[in-house]
Every structure is written in C-alpha cells, then in structure tokens.
Amino acid sequence: MNIYIETYGCQMNVADSELVASILKKEHFSIVEDINIADVIIFNTCSVRQHAEDRVLGRINNEMSRKRSKKDLKIGVIGCMAQRLDKQLNEMNSSIDFVVGVDQYNHLPAIINGLYNENDFECNTIVNDAEIYKDIYPIHSGKFNAFVTIMRGCNNFCTYCIVPYTRGRERSRPIDDIISEITEIGKKGFKDVSLLGQNVNSYHYKNVNFAELLKKVNKIETIKRIRFITSHPKDLSDDVIKVMAESDKVCEHLHLAMQSGDDEILARMNRGYTSQHFYDITQKLRKAMPDISITTDIIAGFPGETEEQFQRTYDLMKKIQFDYAFTFKYSPRTGTKAAEFKDQIPETIRLERLKKLIELQQDITTQKYKEQIGKIKEIYVEQISKKSEYEMAGKSRDFKITVFPGDSTLIGKFVKVKITDAVGWTLKGELIK
Ligand code: 5AD
Ligand code: SF4
User: Fold this and answer.
1) Tag placement on the chain: N or C end, fewer CB within 10 Å?
2) Distance in angstroms between the alpha carbons of the first and the last residue of the chain
3) Structural domain of residue 280, as residue ranges?
4) Same domain for 362 and 401?
C-alpha cells in the first residue's frame, strides 16, 4: 500500500513524519513522494495558529475529490490538529477516514489496515505522557541535515500556546538512544544534525543535562555540525553558552524566541523572564561567539498589548538586531488561558503591528547580510544553485544560504568561501582554494 505524507508546522512535525514513515515501512507499507499514486494520504498537522489549521482543512477539501475516481483511497490526519480536534475532524469533513494523535503512531499500521469499508472511521488520540518512540529510528528525508528528536512535549504553558495541550508533558529520550541514532546517521553520510525539542534546554535524562548532551554529540567523529531548536530564554544556561562556544561542531546559530519586549506582557504570557534578562542573554551569546546569528519569534497584538507595550517590543528588536525574526499575529487558541483574556486586540490592530515588525526586520536582515561581505565562511555544499548550473549552493555555520561558482563534485563537501555580495537574503562569494 502506498502512503503519501504531507507535513505542516514546525521541525518537530517534520521529524515526526520521518518517524511515522519508519513505523509504516517496517509493516511493509511504501512511502511515496507522488500523491497521484497514493492509496493513503496522511496530513501531519499544526495547531499553533488558526491559519495553520485552516490551510490543512483547505488542502483536505482539495484532495477529497480523488475519492471519486479511487473509491478505496483513505485520508488521515495526525499531529497537533488530530490531538486537538479528535473526532470533530470527521464531523468537519467526512472524507477523513482516520485521526491519530501524537502518542499513538505505533498503532497507525493496524489502524490503516483495519479500514475495510468506505464509511469506516478510526480515531485514536489517547495521551501517553511516557511515549518516546524508543527503538524507532526515523527515515531521515534530508540528504545533508538530519533532525533528531531529543525530547517530546512541553511543560511551560505559555498562555497563548496550544502545544502543551496537544503534545503533552515533557519527556526526554534516553541519552544512549540519541547518541546511537546520531552515530548511525553519521555512518550514512549525514554531517549536520539538528537536535529537536519544544524546549531543548530542559533536556534531562538521569544525570545528563543539555550541556552534557551537546558535549557528547560533539565527540561523534562523523558529525561536523550541530544545531538545536528550540531554546527557551528562561532555561538557556551559562553552561550551555560555554559549551556552544567551546565545542567546535556546535554552530554559531541560535533560535531564541523573545515573543515580546514588554515585561508585563511577558508575565501575562507566562514566559518566566524579563526583557532585560532576554537582552542580557543575547549579549552573553555575542560576547562568547562574536559571529553568532540569533533568530527569534515575536507575537504582535497579544491580549491587552497597549501601543506603548508594542513599542517596547519594536524598540528591543531594533536594539538586539536579530539576523531574522519570525513574526506572528496573535491567534486565540481555544483551551489556552490567553484566549479567555477579556482584552483581545482587534484584528486590524494586530495586523498593523505585525506589518511594522515585518518592515523593521526586513531592514535589519538586509543589513545583517550586507555585513557578511568580505568575510570568509565555511559552506556545507548541498546542491547546484537553482539559478545557474555553474554555481553551487550551501549553508554557512550561521545558517545563511551561500552561492558561489563551482562544480557538482563539491556537493557534500565543506569549502571556504569569501563573501563578495549579498543579494536579497542569499550570500554570493568565491571559492578559496
Ligand atoms: N498566536 C500567534 N503565534 C503563536 N505562537 C505560538 N502560539 C501562538 C498563537 N496562539 C508562535 C510563538 C512560537 C511560535 C512557534 O509560534 O511565537 O514561538
Ligand atoms: Fe508553546 Fe511556550 Fe512550550 Fe514553546 S515553550 S511550545 S511557546 S508553551
């Protein structure tokens, strides 16, 4: 049976799709990349904002017509929307044949095999806060970078966020499993690994914390680059910053979600830090690693946010100068605390504020890229450039796409490139022999 998986949302979902592919393959299903030959279409979904959910529902609406010409085609929903909406999904669209929550992926083969009749519907969204998918090695879909899940779930309950409700309580994978998975990946040729979790800084397994984990991964010979996502500013310790600076393989690249630059809003978000604390971390990081690229997430128009409070976010973004910022308009999620707050901000104001943040960040990012001109950067060459067959493209340690004249024998290698130009958000350079 051919299975096509379409993934939405964060890197955790990308990693989960790879996990699901592995679970299904073991039971002799084939994973296909062409939706036209699929017997089963699985949507791995995200609930973090309403827009993300609407997009998937739209996609399912588009694809359900396939059932007219292929009566036994099955459509399933997994991931955060499955967990949040459960059976309701089938009421919203009866062409959905199965719904499987984030802790029940081991049951997917049996669930799919159990759908005999056209109107059969299966739903399993039982929460299991202990599920870590031990002994299942995902099928890594990338060629150069592999995602490795080190923990699942989240205990932080930021008041705007649905994730603790959809992904359950925080749990760390055993250290030995992580190390052996990364060692295996290294043997397969991957040199770049991203460690994943909703809050990697609170990784804890027996006596190994996140700083220790990084040190251990740094020792795996075949691996040349290490990144990790996502870090929570309240838990990013000095120890981790020190290990980042001292470990040659840990890249100078950190995603650190600021969310707001106003202390009262941060408190109402239940973020557990102040704007000063956040600013101080960015300074510590830059002191320890002068070339570090810091990216962030910001929410515009959180309930109760005044013009002055919004301005503080704007000013702090300007002061910190992130390499890039993912900016979002606040989206109320049913079941979260913030959705119940009485002082919701009208949509027009949320959008207006979002626009201001986007414009500010565009200028900063452009400037940050210009500052790279003249630098010599190590590039992990991934592919022939989309624009010219005589140019190669790859990523720098600080995660900037870099293009330079060269031939395809360089693919998969690390080269030194001198940056000569920044065109939009792509660096251009020349190979240094
Ligand atoms: N509305 C808008 N943005 C949100 N995020 C999480 N929940 C919401 C929400 N309800 C953003 C946060 C988080 C990123 C993954 O998504 O900025 O860091
Ligand atoms: Fe959501 Fe906060 Fe957990 Fe991140 S740390 S997943 S924003 S609750």
Assistant:
1) C
2) 50
3) 145-369
4) no
Structurally, how many domains does the chain consist of?
A: 3
CATH code, domain carrying 72: 3.40.50.12160
Q: Which residues lie closer than 8 Å to 287 by C-beta, 6 or more apart?
A: none
Tokens read off for 59 = 């996609």
The Cα–Cα gap between 340 and 333 comes to 9
289 and 220 fall within a common domain: yes
Confidence band, pLDDT 50/70/90 cuts, at residue 37: very high
Q: Which of 46, 48, 326 to mutate to test the pocket of ligand 1 (most atoms within 8 A of CB)?
A: 48
Is 275 a member of any domain? Answer: yes
Q: How confident is the model at residue 135 (pLDDT cuts 50, 70, 90)?
A: confident
- Ligand 1: centre distance to CA 60 (Å): 23
Backbone angles phi, psi at 181, to 5 degrees: -65, -45
- Ligand 2-lining residues (CB < 6 angstroms): 154, 156-158, 161, 163-164, 198-199, 232
Indicate if the pLDDT at residue 160 is higher than 90. Answer: yes
> What is the pTM for the complete model shown?
0.95
Choice from 46, 327, 328 to test ligand 1 binding pocket (greatest atom count within 8 A of CB):
328
Same domain, 392 and 364: no
